[in-house]
Amino acid sequence: MSELGLGTMTILKHGENEARNILETAIQSGIRHIDTADVYARHEVERVIGETLGQERKNLFLASKGGNELTEDGMRWNPIPSYLDAALEGSLERLQTDYLDLYYIHGGTLEDDLDATIEWAKKQKRDGLIRRIGLSSIRPNVIKHWAASGALDVLMTPYSLLDRRPETLDVSIPIVGRGALAKGLLTDEGATRLGDKGFEAWRKEELASELSMMPEPVQAYALEAAKRFCDVVLPGASSVKQLNETIHAFETEVDEEVLDRLLARLPIHPYTKHVT
Ligand SMILES: NC(=O)c1ccc[n+]([C@@H]2O[C@H](COP(=O)([O-])OP(=O)(O)OC[C@H]3O[C@@H](n4cnc5c(N)ncnc54)[C@H](OP(=O)(O)O)[C@@H]3O)[C@@H](O)[C@H]2O)c1
What we know:
The chain is an alpha/beta fold. Helix content is 38%, strand content 15%.
């Protein structure tokens, strides 16, 4: 049985009050898996989560991520253990907790000293600061290295009807799937959200045509497809209204045969980069 989690990357889009309302609505609705990262809104999302959860924290499964070091005008990738020490300490402090249920390394490439990062994560787990080790990655070659280490407890990767690449991964590690709503394309708003660039491997025109053929309610089918593949389905929301629509869609039964036919029709685009 797949679980619904809350992705918090965009909760501050309409201000701090709405962010707190999203978190409170999620908890009142029974969502337990709360996902964040130190870089979301440059530490602010973690701070708001820490201030909002209070006593509820102990009933929740709290995940965060590190490895992107904030700079004056953006961020830079930094998987060096001494930096990760500081990053994890900062996350724990802002989230007002002594431990994280899951801590992801927030990316990485084969050029990193991956084994040093993996050893660092194993030490945090031994020390009790984190309970599970995660990797958030879209690079098959990096995922393969981590999976082979035996240390990886959870893989976060994008997965949706419009991005089925992870179906080609050969790993047997619990998956937290982000992006099930394809940034809102797989909701009632559908193609009104389509920009000129298309989405992932889809060109604008072919995607507009595909979206017009999606079964209704599309959000329920999108989430059901993600449930079939992911252990945790992690949609994002920037308003309480969106979150409520997602919770409703997650609980809506769809016609499994219609979904079977949809999945048989939709392409599984291959990974084109960072394969070997
Ligand atoms: N590398 C990583 O580790 C990484 C990267 C990205 C995300 N994540 C995690 O995964 C979570 C989900 O990722 P995501 O935000 O890319 O995925 P998503 O669930 O596909 O997209 C969420 C967005 O879809 C729109 N949306 C949601 N419900 C809607 C509704 N009912 N009607 C219309 N639009 C709706 C909103 O966009 P608007 O805000 O534009 O309205 C919302 O911010 C994030 O919050 C974060 O926790 C991790």
